[in-house]
Fold ITB1 protein.
Amino acid sequence: CTGNGICKCRVCECFPNFTGSACDCSLDTTPCMASNGQICNGRGTCECGTCNCTDPKFQGPACETCQTCLGVCAEHKDCIQCRAFDKGEKKETCSQECMYFNMTRVESRDKLPQPGQPDPLSHCKEKDVDDCWFYFTYSVNSNGEASVHVVE
């Protein structure tokens, strides 16, 4: 009974908060809680402690990641600007607000990761506070870890 119940006459009697023939399905919805306080960001159902996203555009542990939605670039540009170039609207709050991704600097745009890798990837071109273009990619792996590559 995977340690979550007692076997009686070859049938698992599950402890509270567990279900399934082997008590291997948790009824705890805490792992499905999105940052906005909704279960699976309102875009899926919590099954055995894991989100099953009903909207195929959304993925991740709480259905919060959308690689193809407009705005992935705009949403992260202020944090990338302060982390990479130490400027922009979030310069003062950078260390509190913008440590949620791993950042790698690359020399030129052709050194950025290219489509075809296993993780969904957004290529971004945004303007900084000095009205200059900067280029970066944003991707999230299957563990929900965000990764940014930015052109120096």
About this structure: The longest helix spans residues 72-85.
